[in-house]
Amino acid sequence: RAPGDKGITNKRDEVKQLVDKVAETMYYARHKELDAQVAKLHLEARRSLLLRGFFDDVYKDERGEFAIAQPVARPIEGTLQEVDGRPALLLDKTGMPSRDGPYLHPHALWTWEFMVQKAVSLQVLQIEDIDLGSGPLEWLCKGLRTHSEVRVLRLIGVHIGPAGAKMLGNVLAQSKSLVEIALDKCGLLDAGLSEIAGGLKENSGTLESLSLRQNRITSKRLGNLADAFCQEDSQLQLAELDLSDNPLAADGMKEIARIIGSDVHKLRVITLQDCLLDLAAFWRLVGKLDDAKPLTKLDLRCNPIGRGTRRCWRSTMGPTIRCEVLLSDHPLKVKKETLLQAEESDIGRYPLPSRWV
């Protein structure tokens, strides 16, 4: 059929109407069931909340109103501990939710309203493999901006995109309590990096660690991030930065080298694993190392840096520099093993958001 065929157009319009009303339809179809699940979370008494996506929704959609591959968010219980001055959640042996445990649906927007505000003692919020969408994410960010107890925020495989990065940029700019933020596998792209950098420029809180692993970030707008670390009036206290698994390549290392050479930043650890760094990128980075700067660890593992360069650095120059530079002896082998492990771990019927490209 031709692209303008009426049959195709009518079907597309019909599906679009269902999508536009999915939250409303969800409420009328499942509000009693999902309201009961929210009550079982006991948000008022929680100090930590780990939500992970699972394809185990038992609801029978006989009318075909909802997506067939939408993971529900189930809490994983654990023990909250203090590790290196930061709260950390120690999971039990199984790391799986209980069969009769509560769950949230990302399309049930009303169940996400005021969730963070209700958990007044919440210190750790971690969400994995859930396609939140703009609705739930907006409510979460609204609560995080003013919450005085949340110290750790981890969104892994949430796929928020550049639009969601703008919301989180406001959280970075306004939050005074967050110590650690991880936005791994969230599909930020270069546009999202600019939004995050904008939030960092205005941050005056206690943020110490930021992870942006595997977000398809390139060198195009990396300068915005470098500006956040190098501006003279910066109040940023960030000590750890992780940009691993992004195709930054040699062009991106110009901006990273600018950060390393700056007298303003307070970074102690920079991680750039599997960023397609070659020989030129390596020497550009290590040429900026200075014992007078706070940087103590530069992680360049899983990058195609040659054997001769590694030998030269470790035998002659490395021992004279205070900063520890980590390199892989067999970078391609390590990368292959990592990819195989990722394929083996993904045994679901549909790929979870962390595997979306």
Write a brief caption for the model.
The chain is an alpha/beta fold and 357 residues long. It is built from eleven helices and twelve strands. Helix 6 packs parallel to helix 7 and helix 7 runs parallel beside helix 8.
Characteristic key phrases:
357 residues, alpha/beta, ten-stranded mixed β-sheet, two-stranded antiparallel sheet, 11 helices
Explain this structure to me?
By secondary structure, the chain is α/β, with parallel strands linked by helices. The chain is 37% helix and 15% strand. The chain is built from 11 helices and 12 strands. Strands 2-1-5-6-7-8-9-10-11-12 form a 10-stranded mixed beta sheet, with no helix packed on it. A two-stranded antiparallel sheet has the order 3-4. Helix 5 (161-174) runs parallel beside helix 6 (189-201), helix 7 (222-230) runs parallel beside helix 8 and helix 8 (249-261) packs parallel to helix 9 (279-286). The longest helix has 19 residues, at 22-40.
Tell how many strands the DSSP assignment holds.
Answer: 12
Q: Please give the order of strands in the largest beta sheet.
A: 2-1-5-6-7-8-9-10-11-12
> How many whole angstroms does the radius of gyration measure?
22 Å
The DSSP helix count reads 11
Mean pLDDT reading: 89
Characterize the main sheet: 10 strands, mixed
Helical proportion?
A: 25-40%
Query: Kindly, what is the distance between the CA atoms of the first and last residues, rounded to a whole number of angstroms?
Result: 29 Å
Question: Which strand-content bin applies to the residues?
Answer: 5-15%
